[in-house]
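Appendix B, record 7
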Amino acid sequence: MEVSRRHVLQSGGAVAALGLTGCSGSGGGKSSASSSPGAPSSAAASVGTGTPSVTFDSAKWSYDEGNDVYYRLGVYYCTKPAAKEYEYFGVYVPGKYLKATKNSDGTYTAKVDASGKVGSYTARTAPVVMPVNTPGYAPQSPPTSYSYNDVSAYLKAGLVYVAAGLRGRTSNTSAYTGNAPWGVTDLKAAVRFLRYNDDLLPGDKDSIFAFGVSGGGAQSSVAGSSGDSTLYTPYLETIGAAMKDAGGKAISDAIAGVMAWVPITELSEGNLAYEWNMGQFATTGTRASGTWTEAYSKDLAEAFAAYVNKLRLKDSSGQKLTLAKSGSGVFLAGSYYDHLMSVIQTSLDNFLSDTTFPYTPSTMGGGPPGGASGGAGGAGMPTGGAMPSGGTPPSGGAMPTGASGGPGNSSSAQATTYKTAEAYFKALNADGTWVTYDSSTKKATVKSLAGFVKSQKSATKGVGAFDAPGRDATENAVLGLGATGLHFSELSRTVMSANQSRYAKLTDWKSDYGTSGYTSDFDKTDSVGKKIPYRVNMYDPLYYLSGSYAGYKSAKVARHWRIRTGIMQGDTANTTEINLALALQNYGIDSVDFATVWGQGHTDAERTGNSTTNFIAWVKEVVPG
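C-alpha cells (predicted):
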C-alpha cells in the first residue's frame, strides 16, 4: 500500500504543492527566449546542454519579457554526471536581479545587478529555494520547459528558484543507481555549484532553503542536518561536484533552511516506532493472534521504548523524555508518552481554534469520522488548509489508504458535514469515548492514545512497515542496490536475533525472514564501496543531531526549520516528526516551527492557508532581507 500511495502523491497533488506542475519533465534542455507573457517555451531534450562543468555560462540566459524573468534550463551541476538525464537544473530569477544584453541567437548575456531589488530583497540578499519533489524517495526530473505560473509566487516574492534533477529509488540503469544516498548527494552537488558560481548567479547562497513533501520532506531534512558531512565526500567526488573554489577553499553544501511536510525520516527505527505508536492497537492482518508477526509487533514496540530512553531527548523545560511500563499496552507511560499526548492535544486545540462549525472534512486528510473523502472547502474549513499550492485538486487524491473516513478509519465516498462541535465529537466517540468536549468552554480533551489511534490513525502498513521481512517495503528499495531491496535496520535485526527461535514456531514464519538475511545484506557494498550501515547513517537526521549517535555535531545543521505533518496519516508514527523537532531544539536550533495538523493525513498539511504561500511567508520572516 505504501508504494502505491506514494506513487499517487508523485502526481498532481504533491507536484503542485512544490510549484512544479509544468516544470517536471523527463529530461532537460535549453530554453529559447520569448517575449510572450507567461508563455515562453523550449525544445525538450533528454539531457542537459553543453559539456558538464561546475562553471556557470552567463551567456545563455533566456528571458520572459512580459513577466521580467530570466531563466536557464539544462545546466549541469557536476563535471562527471553519472545520470546525465537527471544531474542538471533550471534556475529562475527576477529580471531586476540581472543586467543583460541580447545575443545574436536570441539568448542573453547577463551579470548580477547588485542594486536590483524586489521588495526587501536585493540580488545579493534574496533567499534561494530548491524544491525536492521526491515522494517515496523517487527521482526528481529536472525542468524541460518554462512556465511562469509554476514559479511566479516565488519570483514575485523576490526569491531565486532552482529546480535540480535528482536521482532516486527508481532511477536505476546498468550504468548507475539511484538508491540512497544519491538523491541527497545530487542535491548537495547542486548547492555546491551555486556557491562555486556565487558571483555569476543572483541570490544569497548562505540562505538556501530546501522544501518538499513526504520523501521530499525527508531528503530536505537529511540535507538540512548533514551539511558538509564527510560521509558524502566520496560520493560527491565520484560525480565531480565542486569541492573547492578557485582559491582552494573548501566549498560548503550546508543549507540555511528546511520546509518539510510529512517527512518520512528515521528509517532505521521506523519499524519500532510504527508498532509502538499504532501497531500495538491493531488485531487483524499481520497483527492477528497467533501469527509470528503479531509477536514481532509487540517486540518491536518494546524495543522502541528502549530506543527512546537511549536518545535522551528533552522537552522545552529540560525534562528528560522517557517511556515506562504501563498497566495496559506496551510502555504507554512516562514523560515521553505524556509529551506525545500533549502534541496530540495541541493539534486538537488548534483545530478548534481554527475551525468554525458547520465543518466538512477535507479530501486531503485522514480526516474526521463520517466521510473524510468528501470535498474540501466545506463551511468552516480553514481556507486552503489541505489543498496543494494553487488550490489544484490532487490527481487521484492524496488521501492515504485506510485514512480515517469514519470511526475505525473506514473511508467514505461522500463527505459528512458536522453542523456542531457536539455532533463532531459524538462521531469521534462512536466506538468508545476517547475524547471529551465541554460545550460551555468549547474545549476538548484527548483521554487515550489507544482511542485516538483506533479512531483516527490506525496502522495502514503491515508489521515491518519500513524494513519488511520480505524486503518489499518502499524503504528496502531506498536503501537497496538498484532494483534489489535490502534489509537495513540494525534495530530490527536486533529484535529478530533475540526472538527468531520463538517466531519460527508461530504461524506464517519463513526461514528467509531470519537474521542471516540481514547479515548478508549488511555486508553488500555499493558502487563507492560503502555498506548499508554507512548509508543508513547518511540518511538519518538524528545521526547528526543526537548525542546518542557517533555523528553528533559532525555536520553543519540548517538554522531554520519548518515542519508540518498531518496527525492522522497512517504512513508513519507521530513520533517521527516529534523526535526530529525535539532533536533540533535539543541541538540548539532556535528557529524550529513545528505543528501537526488535526484532520490532515499524508499531505502538505497546514493549519490554515495555502502551503506555498505559507512557505514563502516563513522564508521572508526568517530572512527578512
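Remarks on this record: The CA atoms of residues 132 and 212 lie 5 Å apart. The two ends are 44 Å apart (CA to CA).
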